[in-house]
Design goal:
The protein is an alpha+beta fold. The chain is built from 18 helices and 27 strands. The protein has a 6-stranded antiparallel beta sheet with strand order 8-7-6-11-10-9, sandwiched between helices. Strands 13, 14, 15, 16, 19 and 20 form a 6-stranded mixed beta sheet that branches. The protein has a 5-stranded antiparallel beta sheet with strand order 2-1-5-4-3, with helices on both faces. Strand 3 and strand 4 (about 105-115) form a beta hairpin. The longest helix is centred in the middle third of the chain and has 38 residues, at about 290-330.
């Protein structure tokens, strides 16, 4: 993006109401027109330009009629009225004054319209200057019919170029409009150069015809001897009427332009709110000199181009901010998942108007889940796709908050239905009027079982290893935020079998919906596209997002692909579970018997004492230090090496602490034994409680 940078010139907020050294240096007068009172105040230099003594002018604009011919006054009034009416920030024109000796003198004015918070114009501040030297020779040769024709031409050219600029959204769009063959034809120029003021320098952004770049001019200082630097310094257009004049006034630049056959040039300051934001140069190869009407055309165009550039710069700045917010709210990285291949993609909407509407509330997330996952094998993972209502920065901000809380609820170990219900309550209690659709899929990659919960979102799709693809009809509840508002937090859970080689696709409706098309037709078209796509999830994701890019549309797109790999990693084998209630010696005894029998049956007889001792320690700790029951789970993980995993769940969120036992005490040695005897161990959050697990490497099976 183009950074607006810092203006090379610094003016007070009410400039040019008060004299400024730069005005005096350039022989400019200033005025301040209070639109509420009608008073038109001028400084001493402005009095000189209007050939009025202080005692001849009392601040009433009507008193200027003695110097401004009626035809010129009507033209100026119409121009100012139109600028106020259409919301313009400034205007500029050449006009004639009749001095006290009866002679006519060309004068140039530039006015800046100050508005209040409601957009109502309150003041016009500006400059006036003597333009005699510029226009003396040409003014004498013009009569009224010629002026009328020229003014019609001026209006036509300004309207054509302004209409084209109205569709420019970025700085490059503005440049393309002006450099387009038709645009240069309207301007009558052979080529264009343009620079923007940034941090006290001018950075070139358009360098004229191909091969015309002048070395050393990409970034120039404002005090350097170049025409664009001059017009930025003086805020005054510079019209160069012949090659001889160009060579004499700019000897450093001219030798680099001789091959372009330039015969004349017009350099215009691009001014917005009394500050130069850049400069533009139009180079001609088929003309010499500029008539007053030509100059009026170019001054008016300069004002229109300056406003278009400022609008484009604001757009790009806000777009950068919006996209930065969007990217900050999405996950920075997606974790690698043992037993699965994952691909995620996001595409911003392409909507005209406010730049903030180029982003939205679509998001994806992948969440490692407690229970079942180990450092050595495939585990449980949560896949999320969602869409917050709206296309603006507020939607992106709400999305970021919702993504974080949903991730937290899932990581705590809550069931999919509970995760969705709590997220809906959170969004309802958030200070926003937005709702969101969401789909949450909790996959156990060791077994292939996927539990899916849907909150007003479109269904997922499932692709088989043979390329067939079908829509998964999943029961659903109300969108997040609405379900809490209407008191309906019931989210049914659907179950899907994800076999090795199968791919689950979650996406937002921007990938499916088209204006005027049925959703079911869109889902069928998407399924056919997936079926014909590559097997690799990353290549498939790229292909789908490319289709969305080509199709365009006013909605953003998020998608997540999850493909379960074949049995190349550890898979869950046998599994046993026992519920042990406090004060139930029979259940405790059954648990110990289950452990002893399973260890011997599963081929871990050599480590049976260690496993039984560690499991008994974990069960005892759960019963002694918590108020609820303990759930004991044993499973075999097979893969590159066989492991036996022991899990003990309880309802307490307090984490176990390793302590040194006293000289005469026995308490405190439990975790020391677990750490000493188990090959790996750890603690995971499980909803309102926790799970302490440990693993033992088993001998290879013969």
């Amino acid at each position: 993006m183009v950074d607006r940078g810092t203006s090379a010139l610094s003016f007070p907020s009410d400039w040019p109401a008060h004299p400024d050294p730069i005005l005096a240096l350039n022989r400019m007068g200033s005025f301040d027109w209070d639109l509420d009172s009608g008073r038109f105040h001028m400084d001493a230099r402005a009095h000189e330009i209007f050939d009025l003594r202080p005692d001849e002018y009392d601040g009433d604009p009507a008193a200027l009629a003695v110097r401004v011919p009626p035809s010129e006054a009507i033209r100026l009034d119409e121009m100012v009225s139109q600028a106020i009416k259409d919301g313009s920030e400034n205007y500029g024109a050449y006009f004639r004054l009749r001095l006290r000796d009866g002679t006519l003198r060309w004068t140039h004015t530039q006015g800046y319209i100050r508005r209040d918070g409601t957009g109502r114009p309150r003041r016009i501040v500006g400059i006036v200057r003597d333009a005699t030297d510029e226009l003396h020779d040409l003014a004498a040769r013009r009569d009224e019919p010629d002026l009328d024709d020229a003014r019609r031409e001026q209006t036509n050219v300004v309207q054509l170029t302004t209409a084209a600029l109205a569709h420019a959204r970025t700085v490059h769009d503005v440049i393309d409009v002006l450099k387009d063959t038709q645009g240069l034809t309207h301007l009558g120029a052979t080529s264009l150069v343009m620079g923007l003021v940034e941090a006290g320098r001018i950075r070139l952004i358009a360098e004229g015809p191909e091969g015309s770049f002048v070395p050393g001019t990409l970034v120039t200082r404002i005090d350097e001897p170049y025409p664009m630097s001059e017009v930025v310094r003086t805020l005054t257009p510079r019209f160069i009427e012949s090659p001889e004049e160009f060579a004499a006034d700019y000897p450093v630049l001219w030798p680099h332009l001789t091959d372009l056959k330039i015969t004349s040039a017009a350099y215009l300051p691009l001014i917005v709110q009394a500050r130069p934001i850049g400069a533009m140069g139009l180079l001609y190869s088929d003309r010499r000199g500029f008539s007053p009407e030509d100059r009026n055309i170019l001054v008016a165009l300069g004002s229109s181009i300056a406003q278009s550039l400022q609008r484009a710069m604001f757009y790009e700045q806000e777009k950068d901010i919006a996209q930065g917010l969007q990217q900050a709210m999405l996950p920075r990285t997606i974790p690698s998942v043992a037993g699965a291949d994952v691909a995620v993609r996001y595409r911003a909407a392409t909507i005209g108007g406010s730049p903030g509407r180029d982003i939205g509330g679509d998001w994806y997330d992948l969440i490692p889940l407690p229970g079942g996952g180990t450092p050595s094998g495939a585990g449980r993972v949560g896949a999320v796709i969602g869409d917050v209502q709206g296309h603006d920065t507020h939607a992106a901000a709400v999305m970021g908050q919702l993504r974080i809380v949903l991730r937290a609820y899932a990581a705590e170990g809550h069931t999919p239905a509970t995760v969705m219900a709590r997220a809906s309550v959170f969004l309802h209690e958030l200070d926003t009027d937005r709702f969101a659709t969401c789909l949450y899929a909790e996959a156990d990659l060791s077994t292939g079982v996927v539990q899916v919960v849907r909150a007003g979102h479109i269904d997922p799709l499932l692709r088989g290893p043979d390329g067939t693809c079908r829509r998964l009809r999943v029961p659903g509840g109300l969108p997040l935020g609405l379900s809490a508002e209407f008191g309906s937090l019931d989210y049914p859970v659907g179950t899907v079998e994800l076999d090795p080689g199968h791919t689950l696709l979650l996406c937002t409706d921007g990938l499916v919906e088209q204006p005027g098309a049925d959703l079911d037709d869109g889902m069928r078209a998407l399924a056919a596209m997936i079926a014909a796509g590559p097997e690799d999830v990353r290549r498939l994701a790229d292909q789908l997002i490319e289709v969305a890019e080509e199709r365009g549309g006013d909605d953003d797109v998020a998608l997540l692909l999850l493909r379960r790999r074949g049995p190349d990693g550890p898979q869950a084998g046998s599994r046993l579970q026992q519920h042990v209630a406090p004060g139930d010696p029979e259940a405790l005894s059954e648990a110990r018997h289950m452990i002893r029998a399973a260890v011997r049956t599963w081929g871990a007889r050599d480590r049976s004492d260690e496993i039984e001792l560690v499991a008994d320690e974990l069960i005892t700790n759960a019963l002694m230090h918590t108020e609820g029951a303990a759930i004991v789970t044993l499973r075999v993980l097979t893969g590159t090496e066989h492991r036996l995993r022991v899990e003990v769940e309880d309802s307490s969120s307090a984490l176990p602490r390793r302590r040194e036992a006293g000289e005469s005490g026995v308490s405190g040695r439990g975790l020391m034994l677990v750490d000493l005897l188990a090959d790996e161990w750890g603690v995971e959050a499980r909803g309102g409680g926790k799970c302490v697990w440990c693993e033992f490497v088993m001998p290879e099976q013969s």
